Amino acid sequence: MQQQEAERQFEKHIREHELLLHKVCRMYAYTDADRQDLFQEMVIQLWKAYPKFKGDAKWSTWMYRVAINTAITGLRKKKNFITSYEPASFPENISDESSGMAAEEQLQQLYTAIEQLNEIEKAIVMLYMEDRSYNEMEDILGIGEATLRVKMNRIKEKLRQLTKNN
C-alpha cells in the first residue's frame, strides 16, 4: 500500500510540473526524438531519486536540480547527444501583426543564441526566464548567488553579441 501511495504522489508531482521538465528538454535537446528520450530519462532519474527526497526543498527546486543534472550528464556521456538540429516551435500569436513579425523574429534570434550557450549558461537563462530568484537558482544549481549574478551579467552580454551578429 505504501508503494502505491508513493507512486501516486510521484505521478501527481510529475503531472503538476511536467511543463518544467519539457522546458529543460527544449534547452538541451533539439529534435523531438531527443526531447522525448531526455524527458523519459529525467522521469526515470527522478523516480530513482524520489525515495531520497526529504522535503527540505520545494519539490520543483529538487526536480529542477535532478532534471538539469540528468540533461548535462546525458550531454557529457554522448558527445553527439544532439543528433540533428530541428528549430524549436515558438509562439505564433504575439500581439499586433505589424510588430508581431519583428517580435517573433527577435524571439527566434534569442532562442537561436541561447542554443549556443553551454549547459550551465542555458540552465541559468532558463531559470532567469522563469523569474526564479537568485536564492532559488542557488538551491537548484548549487552555485553561489554572487557567482550567479556575475555569470548572468556575462550571459546577457554574450546574448547581446550573439543576437547582434545575426
UniProtKB/TrEMBL annotation:
Q: What InterPro entries does its record include?
A: RNA_pol_sigma-70-like, RNA_pol_sigma-70_dom, RNA_pol_sigma70_r2, RNA_pol_sigma70_r4_t2, RNA_pol_sigma_r2, RNA_pol_sigma_r3/r4-like, WH-like_DNA-bd_sf
Q: Which Pfam families match?
A: Sigma70_r2, Sigma70_r4_2
Which keywords does the record carry? Sigma factor, Transcription, Transcription regulation
Fetch the SUPFAM superfamilies from UniProt. Sigma2 domain of RNA polymerase sigma factors (SSF88946), Sigma3 and sigma4 domains of RNA polymerase sigma factors (SSF88659)
Residue ranges of every copy of the RNA polymerase sigma factor 70 region 4 type domain listed in the record: 108-159
For this chain, the family text in UniProt reads: Belongs to the sigma-70 factor family. ECF subfamily.
The record's annotation in NCBIfam families points to: sigma70-ECF (TIGR02937)
Q: What is this protein called?
A: Sigma-70 family RNA polymerase sigma factor
What species was this sequence derived from? Ilyomonas limi
